[in-house]
């Protein structure tokens, strides 16, 4: 009976700490008195949000990057391997986890979304079954306290939100001024740009008071690095910039895919582009990609517009409801084609006409060489040069199909309008 009374008293004091302490550090100090073990609070990027007094002395499991403390990479890898991370996101209650160390984990949720989690390390005393109950209560209390403290709210991003919204909604009448505005913040406007959109219905009219949404944005910003974001029409929208043609590298793609899966989210990704004047068209590429993937019942977390160009054209031709934005035809031409055109202009090359002739001649090397009046070795040199420049392989027939469609779009555009704008 005394044991039940003690647990009841501990629960009461823990709930009361929400009012008497009124901050996360104070709440953790209270719960540590009952658990008698270090308590860590981490966000979904494995960064430490807060630590109890005992946990602050525990440095063997932490590493520091950009003056922020994170869970050691080796531990993260082990947790992923053991499916521990998946369990944290799936379960609403705390659970024991045993590996090299004994731990308790529990997600912290806001509006059903996991925005952080609790980690209790067994070090001072062995765990008891009652510890799970206390950790569950701690999770509920921290969910409330995080919202009270506006922990994930930052005013530093407001300017970038307004800048990006202005680009997406209003007509750009002065490109130089638009680019200058973007450079006011920490965002670096590099050569290659990309729009990524994620559907997310939020509860509050002012999304900056939707803590789960803000946490998603902050988590993705850490993955993308150089980017700005905004929220518009139930969409989280990112403008990402990079000096490399592959704006989303394989490592970023891997982290992004994991983040989307864990949060049960999907995204639409535009073509890579360079000219901000056409940002609205590329934004609608990402939106249409999501609509088309849903329409075609393709359940993927990552959806690239380059895989949906022909379906977009089919859907537009068959569309009687006008529910799809009509994208400028120039922006439907694959970035690879534009890269070849630019390379030839700068180097007086003939890569564009070589590839075009190759595709027009059913990918036959002899016929292409004859048509271009060049030696077969010269043709293969150019073809290898093209693949190297585009960082792709034509062994993948799907890549050539994409290019064939782009050449047809380009031919139609030039025939009707006389020039290609992008």
TrEMBL record:
Database matches in InterPro entries: CdaR-like_regulators, PucR_C-HTH_dom, PucR_C-HTH_sf
Record's protein name: PucR C-terminal helix-turn-helix domain-containing protein
TM region positions: none
Domain PucR C-terminal helix-turn-helix: 353-408
Gene3D superfamilies with a match to the protein in the record: PucR C-terminal helix-turn-helix domain (1.10.10.2840)
Coiled-coil portions: none
A Pfam short name: HTH_30
């Amino acid at each position: 009976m005394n044991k039940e009374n003690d647990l009841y008293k501990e629960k009461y004091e823990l709930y009361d700490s929400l009012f008497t302490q009124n901050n996360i550090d104070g709440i953790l100090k209270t719960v540590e008195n009952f658990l008698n073990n270090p308590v860590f609070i981490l966000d979904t990027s494995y960064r430490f949000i807060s630590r109890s007094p005992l946990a602050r002395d525990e440095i063997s499991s932490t590493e520091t990057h950009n003056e922020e403390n994170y869970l050691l990479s080796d531990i993260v890898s082990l947790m992923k391997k053991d499916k521990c991370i998946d369990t944290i996101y799936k379960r609403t209650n705390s659970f024991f986890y045993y590996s090299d160390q004994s731990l308790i984990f529990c997600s912290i949720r806001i509006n059903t979304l996991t925005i952080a989690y609790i980690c209790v390390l067994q070090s001072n005393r062995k765990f008891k079954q009652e510890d799970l109950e206390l950790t569950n209560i701690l999770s509920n209390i921290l969910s409330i306290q995080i919202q009270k403290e506006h922990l994930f709210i930052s005013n530093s991003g407001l300017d970038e939100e307004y800048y990006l919204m202005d680009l997406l909604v209003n007509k750009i009448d002065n490109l130089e001024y638009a680019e200058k505005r973007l450079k006011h913040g920490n965002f670096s406007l590099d050569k290659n740009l990309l729009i990524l959109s994620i559907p997310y219905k939020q509860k509050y009219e002012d999304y900056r008071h939707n803590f789960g949404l803000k946490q998603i944005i902050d988590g993705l910003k850490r993955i993308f690095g150089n980017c700005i974001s905004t929220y518009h029409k139930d969409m989280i929208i990112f403008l990402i910039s990079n000096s490399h043609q592959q704006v989303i590298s394989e490592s970023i793609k891997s982290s992004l895919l994991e983040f989307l899966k864990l949060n049960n989210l999907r995204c639409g990704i535009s073509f890579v582009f360079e000219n901000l004047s056409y940002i609205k068209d590329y934004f609608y590429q990402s939106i249409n990609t999501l609509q088309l993937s849903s329409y075609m019942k393709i359940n993927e977390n990552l959806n690239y517009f380059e895989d949906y160009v022909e379906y977009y054209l089919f859907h537009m031709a068959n569309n009687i409801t006008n529910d799809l934005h009509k994208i400028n035809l120039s922006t439907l031409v694959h970035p690879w084609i534009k890269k070849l055109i630019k390379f030839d202009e700068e180097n007086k090359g003939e890569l564009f006409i070589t590839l075009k002739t190759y595709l027009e001649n059913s990918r036959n090397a002899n016929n292409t060489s004859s048509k271009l009046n060049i030696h077969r070795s010269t043709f293969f040199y150019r073809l290898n040069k093209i693949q190297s420049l585009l960082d792709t392989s034509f062994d993948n027939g799907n890549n050539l199909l994409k290019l064939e469609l782009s050449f047809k779009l380009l031919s139609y555009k030039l025939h009707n309008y006389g020039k290609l704008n992008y």
